[in-house]
Amino acid sequence: MARTVDVLLPLPIDLLFSYAIEENTEISIGDYVVVPFGKKRLVGIVWKYSDKSDRELKFIEQKINLPSVRPKLIAFAEWVAQYNLIPIGMLAKVIMGGVLKVNQIDKLVCVEKDQEISEISCQLSSEQQIASDQIISNLNEYSVTLLDGETGSGKRKRKLSGSSFIKAIIFGNIGIENCSIDTMCQLLNEESVVMTKQGLDFRFTKEAVEFMKRMYNESMALFKNILQVDCRILQQFKSVKLLDSSYISLPNSMENMYKGYGTSYIGYESNTKSGIKLQLVFDYLNQTLDQLNITEGIRRV
């Protein structure tokens, strides 16, 4: 049975891809490798060992003679992806420098540790020499040196924070029909956060879903502790259930899965041929969701 590993590819998705290793081939974590991907061949990084079976897995084609990515850099990349809510695949190009491609492998030169590199001599002007001396003197401490430009000129107004992300999703889907990523980007712009559609789309990862779940649970706890109704009549019941029913329009391409009205539903005008009816039962006293039903939006006669 061949060994298997998970490889990070420079693709804007939050997934690792499993590959098998040929016998008598030495592959370690952090190695640069060439792997088949569909009809293409891509350069990837061996990210971790896998326990998947080698059955039906494609084999690594080539190991590239480059220094391996250090474990600390792998851990740091995973932290950056989780902290910024971006797919881990987007960081592959950053690690590779954005220029490592299959057709450029033969042009790469690997310098051995014990190989001496000759110094490059150049004549500096008096101003350049002063700048060089200043930079060298700051190498032993943390500092930032501005070579050219204006500080703050390329700085984003504000970074995308967790609170801004939640506001864009919640306010974008409350009271706005057919909310799109464009709408959410406009809401973020009102929060002084400049974000493109592609950039926001990349933030919808598994970590973002887990983040929203945690925020929902915390908001429910806040609702239970603060927004209690002082009504004695409710104390005689073990539970008080609230029923909410909503109609959500879907793309016409989903008509075969969920049929819609195509006309109107309780005063809600809709020209879509597909839709769902969402019924939610919430136990107010126990602060739990008792039931969630999703059915076709078509009216049953």
From TrEMBL:
Highest taxon of the lineage: Eukaryota
This protein's name: Primosomal protein N' 3' DNA-binding domain-containing protein
Pfam families: PriA_3primeBD
Transmembrane segments: none
Any one of the GO BP annotations: DNA recombination
Gene Ontology MF: a single term: DNA binding
UniProt entry keywords in alphabetical sequence: ATP-binding, DNA-binding, Nucleotide-binding
Cross-referenced InterPro entries: PriA_3primeBD, PriA_3primeBD_sf
Domain Primosomal protein N' 3' DNA-binding: 6-95
